[in-house]
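Example complex used in Figure S2.
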Amino acid sequence: MSVPFIDLKSQYKALKSSIDSRIQKVLDSGAYIGGPEVGELEKRLAEHTGSKYCLAVASGTDALLIPMMALGIGPGDEVITTAFSFIATVETIVLAGATPVYVDIDRKTFNMDPKKIEAAITKKTKAIVPVSLYGQAADLEEINAIGKKHNLFVIEDTAQSYGAKYKDTKSGAITTAAGTSFYPAKPLGCYGDGGAIFTNDDQLVTTMKEIREHGSEKRYFHTRLGLNGRLDTIQCAILLAKMERYDWEVDQRNRIAKNYTEAFQGLEKLDPQFSTPYIKPGNVSVWAQYTLTISNRELFQKKMTELQVPTSVHYPLTLPDQPWYKTHTKVLHDINISRWAAGHVVSLPMYPDMDDQTQKIVIDAVKVAVEFSMKEG
Ligand SMILES: *Cc1c(COP(=O)(O)O)cnc(C)c1O
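Predicted assembly (377 residues):
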């Protein structure tokens, strides 16, 4: 039996009647853009995260770019971000016209290390973009405090952490703005591309709404530079159905993660670089990925493939080591931990509908593959 990396089909099966009827309702209504489901979803997500406002947008990429445009981040500005993330984090900074300044990550959480931020601040710094990687919120309070002290915006990239708990609040709810993604494989995914922006700022939300709508204050009256950043009604309808069991899904992901971590106790004796994910006290991850570190990743993955268990690497290169960024952006501060992570992380199958039997196949394969990778390495 081969194991899927993510099983979206069984999730659809579980929600089929609700998803199908909600889609049918939109099809019958004819309101394919801007239907009532858009506002309904925005209200639901704002309540769920504890954020004052939510705007549904066309992708996670737009969910990062639109706040930057609205905050006037552009040429001449520096934006501090992590060196270790998905490319959209830095891509949107460059698209906005600003200069990314990379800082290193914490070795245990893989999130931006707040202790490294202040050394990267200059007169040109305008914002900090932390990423809540793999489903765990970044150190938002520490980062907000630095932002406040130096008068900087904080835009959280919450693409992998929708619904993650952070102390008494949630990922997405406490920064200047936050952008999430509903790409199908994200913890909360739709059936196409999608995303959402969160903010508590009355003025910022108005500006971002206009930018989402080609910079228009009213129809065919364009007062600022914008784009088409709308999320269509069908995707909103799908997300409303998915929200019916999202909290249950997060619980399942946490149960599965706990099973993995318990089962892998002791493997660090075989491989000194072996580690299971570390979740800080006060955090509840939504487990976008369950990510190990390992000495000999290639051999490990080779064995896992032989055993028919898929694995994936998020991400094999740091952001500044990606070909385009290597020639167009600069590394000004030490990013050694990010580079180490890029060489040693590997993610395992993770989805809320994984049953115990399937998980046992993965666990047994990991044990075999760790041993193999050390013997052959
Ligand atoms: C997926 C992702 C994005 C971009 O989201 P899209 O919906 O694919 O545009 C941005 N940042 C991070 C960290 C992501 O994982």
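The longest helix spans residues 8-29. The first strand starts at residue 53 and ends at 57.
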